[in-house]
Amino acid sequence: MMNNLFRVKGIDAIIAESHAGNKLKRSLSTRNLIALGIGAVIGTGIFVLTGTAAATYAGPALTISFIISAVGCIMAGLCYAEFAAMIPVAGSAYSYSYATLGEFIAWLIGWDLILEYLFAASTVSVGWSGYAVSFLADWGLQLSPALTSAPFDYIHGQGWVATGHLINLPAMFVIALFSFLLLSGIRRSAILNNIIVITKIIVILLFIAFGVSYIDSGNYTPFIPENTGSFGFFGWSGILRGAGVIFFAYIGFDAVSTAAQEARDPQKSMPKGILYSLLICMVLYILVTIVLTGMVNYQELNVPAPIAYAIDRAGEGLFWLRPFIKIGAIAGLSSVILVLLLGQSRIFFIMSKDGLLPPLFSRVNARYGTPHYSTLFTGVSCCIIAGLLPINVLGELVSIGTLMAFVLVCTSIIVLRRTRPDVQRPFRTPLVPLIPILGILICLGQMLALPMDTWIRLFSWMAVGLVCYFLYGRKHSKLNNRDSRIQ
After folding, report:
1. Could you give the CA distance from residue 344 to residue 361 in angstroms, rounded to a whole number?
2. Which of 15, 68, 271, 347 could share a disulfide with 243, CB 3.0–4.6 Å?
3. Distance (Å, rounded) from C-alpha 222 to C-alpha 457?
4. What mean pLDDT do residues 453-463 have?
5. What's the first-to-final CA gap in the chain, in angstroms?
6. Mean of per-residue pLDDT scores for the chain
């Protein structure tokens, strides 16, 4: 039984199966992949979480938090780049773990990726709903709160409570819209994503360029506020806690790897798509944080829309920028939703191809070349989650799941360098094992800094995954049901 649980699926077998049965259309260029990465990353983190993290955990030193998270992501990104070029399939960290750590670990990471993409898409759609409702209100279109908020909320110390609202329809609407777009083909989705990415980058650059002249250097003092006496609330522990919380801001670059079977030249374009998009987002995040905490004292930034708040505080001089900020936020959140839905449907697709999920999820539409049942299931699930649950509960489930995936990918690089030194590597992670080890330590440090409630939810989610694996996945696994050699 233990041998079956940790049986490795050979790299050659993974690549051969992807070529033999790949009905997905290869339509994505390097530029498309970079845009997908930027589209997935720049969203909730920069438009929503920056203010809360600065006001609650790190103060102006949130810039350091962003750098810490970025370093961890770059270490993990280098490992992802090697795998994406070496194993250019849609499974991302799931497939990489299958080739190195065995089926059981692959299942756990696949289940973990569902936590990342499915719940992250739902989380971002709730944020999208808030900005969209606010934008419509500016134009005199008032939507009923009963139809724009979740019917349930979770209050620490009290538990679940009823809010009196019915459902969050705008959040469900945007999920449904992009799900149908993804059904119509990857090329159309990529073109729309390119347009959205250009829009939000322009808006962010406008904020940076015009906000610099409104910086008050006094807002940077103290740069690292004194710790309150509790771990994670200001001081250096607050910087680390802030890094763990705003790590959500970098989530998504790994989604580029799920599009490997739809890239024209994945061995060359996948590493560029992952690393270039991550570097661009890192620079933009750091610049926005510097300008934001310079324009407004960090103690005032615990608001849902911190960039819009900073624009308001600047007065009439920047009032013209306010509608563009909201458009940029809506565009930014839209592209994140689109890419996360894409990534989740491809994870379902590849796990189904391996027999760990029902075969329905691996069927591909003959006309559009998309996994239509997988996409529909993803869309319906996200609609239900986004319509019923509050953003705070959803957000807590995402960061720790992503950090766990990064730890396993970094570990897999070390393992594969020892077990398969002969395999062709179009891109090689430099300074192995130093880079993967640093990635592991930084990501683990951020995980340990997260609240205990987050860990409890992670263990609960993984426990459900174990039940699903032993009741269905293990029995239907194609690898365990055929006599194949371990490579």
Report:
1. 11
2. 68
3. 35
4. 84
5. 19
6. 83
